[in-house]
Write a structure and sequence with these properties.
Strand content: under 5%
Order of helices and strands: HHHHH
Radius of gyration: 20 Å
Number of helices: 5
Distance between the termini: 60 Å
Number of strands: 0
Largest sheet: none
């Protein structure tokens, strides 16, 4: 690759990054927090969906930090990738109890 071709490629990449950034931010296909938990934890039972809705409600109310919920979500998925929900539920109840929040 000669120098001109490399500079042309680098310049076109630099000009296209802001456009790509706008497209990614404006994407309606991006999952929200509720859907991320629901599908990432592989919820199947109505009680599991209800627990996820309760956690999202507590986050929206400001009683649970979103960072804590996401860290518990990641931990549960690493512990048992095929069945992460029980690990998430157990851990969230323990961590929420430490903050004085009843789940």
């Amino acid at each position: 690759m000669n120098r001109r071709r490399w500079l042309y490629w680098l310049g076109s990449l630099a000009l296209s990054l802001p456009l790509l950034n706008r497209l990614v931010k404006a994407s309606p296909m991006q999952a929200d927090f509720h859907e991320t938990l629901k599908f990432g934890l592989k919820c199947r039972l109505p009680a599991e969906f209800a627990f996820v809705e309760l956690v999202v409600l507590k986050v929206d109310q400001g009683l649970l930090p979103k960072v804590m919920v996401l860290s518990q979500f990641d931990w549960a998925r690493k512990q048992r990738p095929r069945i992460p929900f029980p690990y998430f539920q157990f851990g969230m109840r323990k961590r929420a109890a430490a903050l004085g929040v009843d789940l």
